[in-house]
Amino acid sequence: MKNHILLSAALVATTLACKPQNDGPAQETAKVRSLDGLTGAKTEYVCGSTTIPDYAKPLQALIEPKDAPLTAELMSTAAALPAAVAQLMAGVRARIILVPDGVKACEGTPFTAEEKALNVSAEPTRACWRQTGGEPPELLIEADVAVIRTSLVRLGSYFFTEFLLPRLQNAQAPAPFNSPEWKNAASAVIAARTRLGEAFLEDLKGAPADTREKFVKLRDKDAVAFGNVVLAEAQDSYYCSKASRDVFRSKFEATWAVFADGGDPQSPMSLFGAR
């Protein structure tokens, strides 16, 4: 497998043919902001860029409603998405829907008690993804600049781990996802997610005991959900902006060492792309 995960056009037909893991209810997405937000900090970062990379440009055609007033804000935020995530969204023709009330749209999000305990900001969910039957998945985001700027990169990570990985692990997966290359790709992301979670707990040894305990409880009850939370927040910290990367590097040294290990072809940075 090459260093970066590159998604093929075959995703359009074959991924949609796979039975979704859950029909109907909105899937989970984080309610906090970057790794330091996950541990109680109040800092919020403005994600994105005025320069839209080529891999993110196809997403504009998927935004609903068409010509929405916040399309420019959404696309500039999409510039912060890692290439593999943006390619997944475009490849499966995921509808990116700006909704007037994100809380209502995402009210079916199935959070566990342990996941709810991580919501240090006590804010309701305003962005989520869902899929019904064999229809294209939908990413629902409240039509609010602040919500868009602080949710899209994190939501993209959850979409990648919750939508793509289960399909790659499915023994009945159609070609090309039943190939050794794709199976190895899934294994690499899963292994990186596990290493990242353990490094994050190492960083939390200096945090208040109750903060670390919340994450330990989630890991012990649902290691996959725990890993998805940490990976999503780490991706948000790394890809959002230079400011968020600087905080990531300085405050979460063990997690940064795993995420941004350029010498490891299977580190998250190597798999999803360096900034």
What does this structure look like?
The chain has 275 residues and is mainly α. The chain contains 13 helices and four strands. The chain has helices at 11-17, 34-38, 71-78, 83-91, 102-105, 113-117, 145-169, 180-203, 209-221, 223-239, 242-251, 253-259, 268-272; strands spanning 63-64, 95-99, 127-130, 138-142. It has a four-stranded mixed beta sheet. Strand 3 (127-130) and strand 4 form a beta hairpin. Helix 7 (145-169) packs across helix 10, helix 8 (180-203) packs across helix 10 and helix 8 runs antiparallel to helix 12 (253-259). The longest helix is centred in the middle third of the chain and has 25 residues, at 145-169. It starts with 10 loop residues before the first helix and ends with a helix. Residues 1-33 have low confidence and may be disordered.
Strand content: 5-15%
In round numbers, the mean pLDDT is 82
- Count, helices: 13
Q: Biggest sheet: strands, sense, closure?
A: 4 strands, mixed
Measured distance between first and last alpha carbons? 20 Å
Q: What structural category arises from helix and sheet content?
A: mainly alpha
Query: What would you report as the Rg, rounded to the nearest angstrom?
Result: 17 Å
Strand order of the largest sheet: 1-2-4-3
Helix content: 40-55%
Poorly predicted segments: 1-33
What is the H-and-E element order?
Answer: HHEHHEHHEEHHHHHHH
